[in-house]
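From the methods appendix. Each design record in this collection lists the tokenized structure first, followed by the designed amino acid sequence. Records were kept in a plain field format so they could be parsed without special tools. The example shown here is representative of the layout used throughout.

RECORD:
FOLD TOKENS (54 positions):
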């Protein structure tokens, strides 16, 4: 359960892996920004009364 674990403050990742095309790395960033991050924020906000900052 998320509340039973330490709070995550930062997430670091490589947008482009060695040998990967720029288009592939850009698609990954678009997916994270457009789908994954908003979904994580929505689920966290649903679990608490405090709104998650954008």
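DESIGN:
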């Amino acid at each position: 359960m998320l509340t039973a674990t330490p709070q995550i403050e930062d997430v670091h990742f490589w947008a482009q892996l060695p040998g990967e095309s720029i288009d592939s790395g850009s698609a990954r960033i678009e997916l994270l920004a457009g789908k994954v991050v908003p979904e994580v924020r929505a689920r966290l906000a649903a679990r608490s009364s405090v709104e998650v900052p954008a």
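APPENDIX NOTE: Residues 22-47 form the longest helix (26 residues).
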